[in-house]
């Protein structure tokens, strides 16, 4: 009874659109956060700053570590090749994640919601991939699966990829609300795999 007229663009979306206009030609490396309301997302916050996402992540890390004990499921020559590839992936993952940690500087937080006094970082490893810490963890997890020759650990690495994709979506809704230039940055730089995805 009595339906109210609705705007075709929800208020949160129009706020994001208004904040994104004109930011395409902004070349600065760091941007101050915008005092705008939180962006909407279909994914749950899981706490005021996203603490639940971190709790799920820690559980997944534990399960992945345990899954590595299920190997080796295959023998040589695949075992030796897998262990070499796994060690390389773990090393590369650690380097990428460390560059992401160092690149964030004062913006570093354990939870997905950005710090109130933070700046948008687009330089360094963040010029290649938007979530290098997640990328590094996923690479190291895949390396763990290969190093231990464990199909359950390889499956766990894939589950981590799916989880971090979802977590990054929730995080990016907050980043869009905090930094007007994030929309243009998101169009330029891939999410988890440089030049691919």
Quick structural gist:
This protein has helices at residues 11-20, 51-67, 78-104, 132-147, 151-178, 182-188, and strands at 30-31, 120-121. With 197 residues, the protein is mainly α.
Overall geometry: globular
Mean pLDDT: 82
Q: What is the first-to-last residue Cα distance?
A: 46 Å
- Largest sheet report: 2 strands, antiparallel
Low-confidence stretches: 1-39
CATH topology of the domain at 74-197: Four Helix Bundle (Hemerythrin (Met), subunit A)
CATH architecture of the domain at 74-197: Up-down Bundle
Strand content: under 5%
What would you say this structure looks like, in words?
By secondary structure, this protein is mainly α. It has a domain of 124 residues: Up-down Bundle (Four Helix Bundle (Hemerythrin (Met), subunit A)). It contains 6 helices and 2 strands; from the N terminus they run αβααβααα. It has a two-stranded antiparallel sheet. α3 runs antiparallel to α4 and α4 packs antiparallel against α5. The longest helix has 28 residues. The N and C termini lie far apart (46 Å). 34% of the residues are buried. The N terminus is likely disordered.
Please outline the helices and strands.
Layout: H1 11-20, E1 30-31, H2 51-67, H3 78-104, E2 120-121, H4 132-147, H5 151-178, H6 182-188
Antiparallel strand pairs: 1-2
Helix pairs in contact: 2-5, 3-4, 4-5
Keywords summarizing the entry:
mainly alpha; Four Helix Bundle (Hemerythrin (Met), subunit A); 197 residues; 6 helices
């Amino acid at each position: 009874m009595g339906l109210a007229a609705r705007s075709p663009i929800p208020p949160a979306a129009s706020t994001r659109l208004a904040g994104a206009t004109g930011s395409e030609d902004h070349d600065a490396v760091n941007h101050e956060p915008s005092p705008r309301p939180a962006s909407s997302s279909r994914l749950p916050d899981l706490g005021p700053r996203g603490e639940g996402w971190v709790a799920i992540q820690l559980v997944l890390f534990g399960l992945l570590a345990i899954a590595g004990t299920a190997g080796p499921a295959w023998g040589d020559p695949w075992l030796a090749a897998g262990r070499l590839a796994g060690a390389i992936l773990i090393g590369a993952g650690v380097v990428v994640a460390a560059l992401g940690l160092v690149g964030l500087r004062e913006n570093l937080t354990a939870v997905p919601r950005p710090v109130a006094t933070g700046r948008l970082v687009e330089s360094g490893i963040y010029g290649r991939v938007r979530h290098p810490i997640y990328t590094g963890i996923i690479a190291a997890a895949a390396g763990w699966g290969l190093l231990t020759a464990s199909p359950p650990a390889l499956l766990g690495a894939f589950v981590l990829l799916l989880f971090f994709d979802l977590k990054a979506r929730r995080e990016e809704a907050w980043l869009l609300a905090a930094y007007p230039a994030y929309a243009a940055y998101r169009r330029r730089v891939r999410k988890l795999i440089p030049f691919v995805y």
